[in-house]
Inverse folding.
């Protein structure tokens, strides 16, 4: 198991395998004792250094159709488009209210929200609000399919604290391809407490959204999913940030806030800075930590978010890089000569946890296992007609999540629950590390790890829980819980 765990951390696909390097910079994504077959059995690409030749831009903030008192209305349309990702080339892409990705949706705690959803794609889709606490009817799981040309309208009230969330499609069997083509957008929740915090908060100036996605382009600069799709998670060789290929962040030497989303289909990022610049994590998936946590590196599995503060006034020279575990450059950072010194608040949030939960036995056990065609949860593939668990609205239960190692081997699995933000109680019986001591909707587990989490659903409905490697999700590594 120790050997497997080490291999997991060293391989680009984060799974047990023999490391190989070849002349065309590809990595084999094979599993121990297994073979992949069929249209999704493609070699994985090794991520190349981000060359930083383009300037990073930031998604525009979506403007409401109408706003009256505490009620706000938006329209979000899934559509096709063409994007000039490479000079002189038009890449066919998907986007929300545009050609690629989506505008940032900013909501306020306490708002009543109406969103008109339109599907102008030539295929069915859904609109899932990843991390948002809403009823099952508004959540946008695979049951809420909108056919090509169709529309839906959802209503909900924002009842959770400030957080960095996101939205993306969730049609059964086609989520991975639609996200790969460009369907993803950020969703911010603001509240009075977050507005009062002494932290960077000017969007695009010192508060930067960072959507990390790895993609592979054909010779004519197109995104052809079927040519690179891999059943155990599709990796790309080119870094795309906020929809910009090979993008560099340009800013002053000052304290900045990076809201990082791992929006990739499957790749994990173990981020740090190449000058050993320490940073401070201030928020997890579902909101602020109680106090800032100083660290030098951070693991983000597919679907996870983290907010960090970095003081660039401490940097020697005018450049540094955000890099992955193996030193691959994820995002070059170019600094101007302007130096701005500042400090940030030391008290962020109050997180209350019932001490009895730490000793409570798990009422639900989720066992993720298998690879390739054999991925399952509790030994079963997803069945939309089967309810795997039930839970009472407002009741807090302890779940045990296990990433099992089987005869086939093991790999990292990011586990996600819809409609709730949970608290991590322990990892293998030990107190979770600092980066997990806040509210989460996705937790990345190494092979052999078991986590205990405290789960409360504030609303009723049927919700998904699944591995957030999108190809695993599409292949049935998913279950559903009915909240009554």
């Amino acid at each position: 198991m120790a050997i497997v765990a080490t291999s997991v951390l060293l391989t680009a696909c984060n799974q047990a395998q023999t490391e190989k390097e070849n002349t065309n910079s590809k990595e084999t994504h094979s599993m121990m004792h297994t073979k992949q077959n069929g249209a999704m059995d493609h070699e994985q690409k090794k991520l190349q250094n981000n060359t930083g030749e383009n300037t990073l831009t930031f998604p525009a903030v979506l403007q409401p159709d109408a706003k009256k008192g505490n009620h706000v209305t938006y329209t979000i349309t899934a559509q096709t488009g063409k994007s000039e990702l490479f000079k002189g080339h038009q890449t066919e892409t998907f986007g929300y209210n545009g050609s690629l990705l989506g505008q940032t949706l900013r909501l306020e705690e306490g708002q009543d929200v109406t969103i008109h959803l339109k599907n102008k794609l030539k295929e069915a889709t859904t609109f899932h609000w990843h991390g948002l606490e809403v009823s099952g009817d508004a959540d946008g799981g695979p049951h809420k399919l909108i056919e090509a040309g169709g529309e839906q309208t959802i209503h909900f009230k924002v009842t959770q604290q400030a957080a960095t969330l996101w939205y993306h499609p969730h049609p059964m069997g086609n989520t991975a391809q639609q996200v790969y083509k460009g369907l993803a957008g950020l969703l911010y929740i603001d509240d009075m407490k977050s507005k009062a915090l002494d932290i960077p908060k000017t969007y695009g100036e010192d508060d930067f959204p960072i959507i990390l996605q790895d993609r592979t382009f054909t010779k004519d600069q197109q995104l052809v999913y079927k040519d690179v799709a891999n059943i155990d998670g599709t990796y790309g060789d080119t870094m795309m940030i906020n929809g910009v290929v090979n993008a560099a962040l340009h800013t002053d030497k000052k304290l900045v806030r990076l809201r990082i989303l791992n929006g990739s289909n499957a790749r994990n990022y173990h981020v740090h800075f190449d000058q050993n610049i320490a940073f401070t994590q201030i928020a997890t998936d579902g909101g602020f930590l109680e106090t800032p946590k100083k660290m030098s590196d951070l693991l983000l599995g597919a679907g996870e978010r983290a907010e960090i503060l970095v003081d660039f006034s401490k940097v020697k020279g005018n450049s540094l890089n955000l890099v992955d575990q193996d030193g691959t450059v994820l995002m070059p950072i170019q600094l101007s000569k302007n130096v701005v010194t500042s400090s940030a608040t030391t008290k962020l949030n109050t997180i209350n946890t019932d001490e009895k939960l730490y000793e409570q036995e798990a009422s639900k056990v989720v066992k993720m296992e298998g690879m390739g065609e054999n991925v399952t949860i509790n030994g079963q593939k997803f069945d939309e007609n089967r309810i795997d668990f039930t839970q009472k609205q407002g009741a807090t239960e302890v779940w045990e999540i296990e990433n099992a190692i089987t005869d086939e081997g093991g790999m990292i699995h990011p586990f996600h629950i819809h409609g709730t933000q949970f608290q991590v109680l322990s990892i293998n019986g030990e107190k979770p590390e600092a980066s997990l001591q806040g509210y989460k909707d996705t937790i990345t587990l190494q092979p052999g790890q078991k986590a205990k989490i405290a789960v409360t659903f504030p609303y009723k409905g049927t919700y998904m829980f699944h591995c957030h490697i999108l190809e695993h999700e599409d292949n049935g590594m998913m279950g559903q819980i009915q909240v009554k």
User: Anything to note?
Assistant: The longest strand covers residues 71-86. The CA atoms of residues 147 and 158 lie 27 Å apart.
